[in-house]
Amino acid sequence: MNSDRPFVPNFLQKFDKKLLITNPTVWSVRTHLVLYFVLLFTIVISLFCAALLQDARADNSVATITSFVIMIAIIGFIIWLKYLLRFNVFKRFGKWHSADGLVTYLLIFFTTLLFTFLPFIPSIVQSTIANVTYTSQELVNDINEINSTANLLEYDKIPKKWTADTFYIFKSTYTVKPNSTDTIWQYNVPINTTDKANNFNISDKDLEEKLLYTDSLIKINDSNYILYKAPQYAYVSSYRFLENDKLKILSNKELYNAVIKNYVKPNREQLLQRMAFFKSKYFLKDNEYDYGSNTDNDYANAIVKTYSLYSIDRGINNVAEAQSWFFRDKIWLINLLFYFTLSLSLLVFIFRHSTTKTFFLSILTAVILSILSALFVVITSKNESAIFITMFVYYVLFTVLALTIFNSTTKSLVQGISLNLIVFFTPILPLLCVGYYVQCIYEYNEFKNNNINTSLYYICAEVVGFVLLLILIEPLFKKLYRKWYALPEA
After folding, report:
1. Cα(324)–Cα(124) distance, rounded to whole angstroms?
2. Alpha-carbon separation of residue 423 from 98, 157, 343, 459 (angstroms)
3. At residue 183, does pLDDT exceed 50?
């Protein structure tokens, strides 16, 4: 054993030998060895990433490192499968326990999770370094101070007038569809320009979007409005914080009110020192390149170039991106890990309990049925409820065919495919039920006066589906597989 596994410590080899003698079914999954090598690889790749990604301001190569780790994870997963599939699950090796089927699948699920989690290590290291080096509140405060300082230093060069657009609402005889009346908007040039008036129609939806980007509004009457927009006063920003209620980046309007409106001549030397400090904090030569500017305004171009704000902006955005890439959507990442691991572990479980021919024909059947069902729904113009109903019908049909294995005298390819498909789709059965229920509520407008948290329904369905799978593995699926595998060929 020592010669076969030179990198495995003695205590783990002793545990491996003991597990082989006492519980060979659990031993055959080799989870303990996978866990050891995954932990070892995690330490190595974490140290490598920490050395390579130590500067959060830089355009890092985390995607390249992640691709490398994915390749290593795939190779490791294939090597693990080679050892896992050595043993026929229907032959006895030592003493069997009543819950071996359930424990084996849980170990397969956990081992698959280890391989699935490996590609996230570079992003975790990157996010950890960025969050240790900078805080989100620090970035927002620096962004606001940089913009305010730049406006104070260049007060004489920046414009003070806001642009104003006058709109008049009227009912038009123009209609897009028969028997419909649209609200049309007539646009006039800004009141502080001498350009000729331009008139065009705007839909209600386009107008609502325009109002979102308006800094100020004056209502003349019910059909006459003036919309105001402030000049550009923000030269550094980060979209990561724009929708954050707790971390507020000052808008052009807010910068005008804070700096321009009540301008007081500052101490220029102190402000220049602050800009020099921010340059030393966020500037990287690699982030600076001759694209001219990040804006079309001449005065803004000059300010950006004077204080190297393009490189500073890029450095701040790289830090913000690194901070939030892994940690910003925890629910999404958990779902990704869970469903990818669940799907992969079920495929391994099915392949281990089925024949190679039946396994691949099961995948082909699922793909063909998905395509035909999608075409049927599209051609017949059915709503989303039809998709759920179709999947229910498939599941019931395959379940009936799989249960006939108990009374069958010969091995049937159709029965094997049906059994494989119900095993794979059992965890999402409660999710389909909830999806159908929610879709029906939407279709019948029962959500109009009810504030129902559908996300909670889906979370419960995911938990129930996984528990249902675990419950059925030993008393139903294992027995069906054992019976079907033992039957003679037709």
Report:
1. 10
2. 20, 70, 11, 20
3. no
| DSSP symbols for 91-135 | S--S---TTHHHHHHHHHHHHHHHHHHGGGHHHHHHHHHHHHH--
Query: 51 near 122, Cβ under 8 Å?
Result: no
d(CA 197, CA 207): 19
Contact partners, residue 338, CB within 8 Å, separation at least 6 = 462
Q: Which of 140, 138, 133, 127 is nearest to 238 (CA)?
A: 140
CA 349 to the chain's CA centroid: 27
Instruction: Inform me whether the pLDDT recorded for 402 exceeds 90.
Output: yes
- How many Å apart are CA 237 and CA 242, to the nearest integer? 9
Give me 114's structure tokens.
């280890």
Q: Match 């927009």 to its residue by tokens.
A: 229
What is the residue type of 189? Answer: V
Q: Which of 178-187, 355-364, 416-425 has the lowest mean pLDDT?
A: 178-187
N residues, the chain: 490
CA distances from 319 to 53, 75, 122, 327 (A): 11, 32, 15, 13
| 219 phi, psi to nearest 5 deg | -95, 110
Q: Where are the alpha helices (DSSP H) in 248-324?
A: 252-255, 268-282, 298-306, 309-324
How high is the pLDDT of residue 489? 80
Q: What is the pLDDT of residue 20?
A: 85
Average pLDDT for residues 294-314, to the nearest whole number? 81
Cβ atoms of residues 411 and 484 within 8 Å = yes
Region 239-265: what's the mean pLDDT? 81
Query: Is there a contact between 400 and 421 (Cβ–Cβ < 8 Å)?
Result: no
| pLDDT of 42 above 70 | yes
Angle at the Cα of 19 from the Cα atoms of 467 and 39, rounded to 5 degrees? 70
For residue 204, the model assigns a pLDDT of 53
